[in-house]
């Protein structure tokens, strides 16, 4: 059996919409290959989850052709499993980009996991938000929490 690349993703949002970050971890053969966090601006909860998936796919293209995506966002997992069309106008372009990225892989599986099993990437996503505010010296009282 071929060992799949395991990718955990999460989006964090402080407010809805609010300052958002994404967290990604990539593991192969029980070894951490990459941990990635990024501040993505003001987004909604669902947008941040889709941004995390998009970035994970972009990163994974050069690593392996067979991947397993783990997410604690049930709507993203369901949508990607059945290729259901997204109704929200703001997400349509993002999901089209994701569909195009998926074509770069031989096999992709999506798996829903509970939030507590995804805590590491949640921390990465939240750290990306914190780092953005700390690096840019934005006062605490202007942050949406």
Supply database-style keywords.
145 residues; alpha/beta; 4 helices; 5-stranded mixed beta sheet; 31% strand
Word description of this protein:
The model has no long low-confidence stretch (mean pLDDT 91). The protein has a single domain, classed as Nucleotidyltransferase, domain 5. It is globular. The protein has a five-stranded mixed sheet. β1 and β2 form a beta hairpin. The protein is of the alpha/beta class and 145 residues long. The chain is built from four helices and five strands.
Question: In percent, how much strand structure appears in the residues?
Answer: 25-35%
Low-confidence sequence ranges = none
CATH class categorisation: Alpha Beta
Average of per-residue pLDDT values: 91
Overall number of domains: 1
- Which strand order do you get reading across the main beta sheet? 3-2-1-4-5
> What is the helix content?
25-40%
The largest β sheet comes out as: 5 strands, mixed
CATH superfamily: Ribonuclease H-like superfamily/Ribonuclease H
Terminal-residue CA separation: 45 Å
Count of strand segments: 5
Discrete helix count: 4
The CATH architecture can be named as 2-Layer Sandwich
Question: What is the molecular shape?
Answer: globular
The gist of it:
This protein is an alpha/beta fold. The protein is built from 4 helices and 5 strands, in the order βββαβααβα. It has one domain: Ribonuclease H-like superfamily/Ribonuclease H (Nucleotidyltransferase, domain 5), CATH 3.30.420.
């Amino acid at each position: 059996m071929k060992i799949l690349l395991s990718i955990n993703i999460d989006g964090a949002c402080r407010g809805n919409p609010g300052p958002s970050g994404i967290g990604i971890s990539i593991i192969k053969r029980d070894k951490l290959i990459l941990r990635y966090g990024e501040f993505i601006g003001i987004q909604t909860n669902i947008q941040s989850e889709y941004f995390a998936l998009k970035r994970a796919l972009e990163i994974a293209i050069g690593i392996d052709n067979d991947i397993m995506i783990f997410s604690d966002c049930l709507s993203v997992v369901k949508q990607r499993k059945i290729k259901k069309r997204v109704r929200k106008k703001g997400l349509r372009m993002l999901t089209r980009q994701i569909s195009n990225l998926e074509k770069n892989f031989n096999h992709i599986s999506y798996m829903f996991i509970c939030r507590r099993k995804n805590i590491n990437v949640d921390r990465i996503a939240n750290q990306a938000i914190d780092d953005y505010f700390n690096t840019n010296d934005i006062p605490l009282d202007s942050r949406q929490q």
